Amino acid sequence: MGLIQELAGHPLTQQFQTLGLGTQVAIGFTTFIVLSVVLNVIGQLLPTNSNEPPLVFHWFPFIGSTVTYGMDPPTFFKENRAKFGDVFTFVLLGKKTTVAMGPSGNDFVLNGKLKDVCAEEIYTVLTTPVFGKDVVYDCPNAKLMEQKKFMKIALTTEAFRSYVPIISHEVTDYFKRCADFKGKSGVVDIPKRMAEITIFTASHALQGSIIRNKFDVSLAALYHDLDMGFTPVNFMLHWAPLPWNRKRDHAQRTVAKTYMDTIVERRAMGDADKELDMMKHLMNSTYKNGTKVPDHEVAHMMIALLMAGQHSSSSTSSWIMLRLAQYPHIMEELYQEQVKVLGADLPPLKYEDLAKLPLNQAIIKETLRLHAPIHSIMRAVKSPMPVPGTKYVIPTSHTLLAAPGVSASDPAYFPNPDAWDPHRWEVDSPNAPTIIRNAVVEDEEKIDYGYGLVSKGSASPYLPFGAGRHRCIGEHFANLQLQTIVAETVRHYKFRNVDGGNTLIGTDYASLFSRPLEPANIHYEERD
Ligand code: HEM
Ligand SMILES: *[C@@H]1O[C@H](CO)[C@@H](O)[C@H](O)[C@H]1NC(C)=O
Ligand SMILES: *[C@@H]1O[C@H](CO)[C@@H](O)[C@H](O)[C@H]1NC(C)=O
């Protein structure tokens, strides 16, 4: 007798058939889940292709390690690094994702060759509906390199000189009109305030005063809607006709139109327009083949730049303020540094002043070491990639992931790594980084991917702005913006934790860019 007939005649089968349909479905479904869990676990226990990196154990197929990774990526990386070493694979939403850590892992992923790794394949589903067509990850890499060149050229010393007073003024003005800072002292939820300060300062400096003024009226709310396109579930649901996606699409069209109208308006102004913002420069840029950058591309690049800068800078400035509230004596040192270097009357800040304030600079460096807003950088694998110094070959079915934040808090490179100590960036500090001093020499070799010279080697433990062809072009602007915001804030206020202690709030990893959990309240007191 065949197996099927035997099963059909089996008393258990006959019993099953007498059950209600609901129960039959429930039993069938449970059996399916149990079987797939069992097969998934057996699959992991069987000897695998020994050229593939070790796989993080997980109970459920597809879900894999998505939840443990998603709740706290740095802890997930550190725990598995302790088990497997610098290279291992985990399942993220059904996709085998290979992490490469440490300075050589950073180099492997971020300096990957164009034929081996691809960023746009991963990011485009999220970014294109938000930024719009034909820019950044919705075009060939060579075109992105040209677009980054235009952006980088716009950021001249002359432009930077004009940005410091603009930013200073925006910050001072914000403190004056913000209801939360009305009293001589009080409590304020700092990330909300920093998000606004960041958008007003960045839009004014990079996009000009016409656009800046529209943020008081309509643009802020529209950018809020655009932001909702950046939730991680949209890696899967970017296409879905859901309320937040409809709002995103409407906001993208409306914001792009606002920029395009402003471009026309500013062209008409001609020489009367004296501002040195990024938009003005992009409006007047020409691709190598002689084609002028079309207005819709300028508009879409404006959205991309504001989004890239907004989340990273506002998260960083929030962490800085929370760290200053945690350690008020450092905030006092920052104030005294300005008094000593610039004079007790504290004249208006100038671009040249920033270079004279080393502690003010170190605050940003140290905060980015422990609170880099981008915890995971991903690439699609386009051809099998042997990992140098190992037997591993990463197949094209995997995604590659770099996490430079892990090496930035590794005791091998940063003594006492969990201490937020801005003084560690002074050469004679006991906490001074052990490797950076040598790395400076190694890094001197430069390469141009099409947007200007950048360090060739990226085997560094400290890369908050990434490396290679996708490296940040906003680093110098972000530093200028953050240094100016910190210097102005220190002139106005003394911060401390609300309870007077020195605890620090946890990190929120639920959106694409990590940031402080909210509310994150601090106590402020006006300086006399
Ligand atoms: C504290 C602030 C910032 C941090 C920590 C930061 C970090 C980064 C990182 C890690 C990357 C590499 C991403 C990758 O390899 O996939 C990147 C790329 C980039 N960032 Fe920033 N960024 C900051 C501010 C800014 C600002 C203010 C702007 C604009 C003015 C900006 C514009 C860009 C652009 C255009 C790219 C290139 C993307 C690519 O080539 O794929 N960033 N940034
Ligand atoms: C010139 O190059 C740009 C950027 O790559 C591209 O968008 C455009 O279509 C090209 N124009 C022509 C006429 O080939
Ligand atoms: C635009 O670019 C051209 C040449 O690329 C230059 O001569 C001109 O001065 C620029 N105009 C502005 C307003 O920057």
From TrEMBL:
Subcellular locations according to the entry: Endoplasmic reticulum membrane
Chief location of this protein within or outside the cell: endoplasmic reticulum
Keywords: Endoplasmic reticulum, Heme, Iron, Membrane, Metal-binding, Monooxygenase, Oxidoreductase, Transmembrane, Transmembrane helix
Transmembrane segments: 21-42
Keyword Cell inner membrane attached: no
Source taxon at top rank: Eukaryota
GO MF annotation list: heme binding; iron ion binding; sterol 14-demethylase activity
GO cellular component: endoplasmic reticulum membrane
Annotated membrane topology: Single-pass membrane protein
Any matching Pfam family: p450
Keyword Ribosomal protein set for record: no
Pathway, per record: Steroid metabolism; ergosterol biosynthesis
Swiss-Prot/TrEMBL cofactor(s): heme
Residues binding heme: 472
PANTHER family: 24-HYDROXYCHOLESTEROL 7-ALPHA-HYDROXYLASE (PTHR24304:SF2), CYTOCHROME P450 FAMILY 7 (PTHR24304)
Family from the record: Belongs to the cytochrome P450 family.
Name of the molecule in the record: Eburicol 14-alpha-demethylase
Organism listed in the record: Cylindrodendrum hubeiense
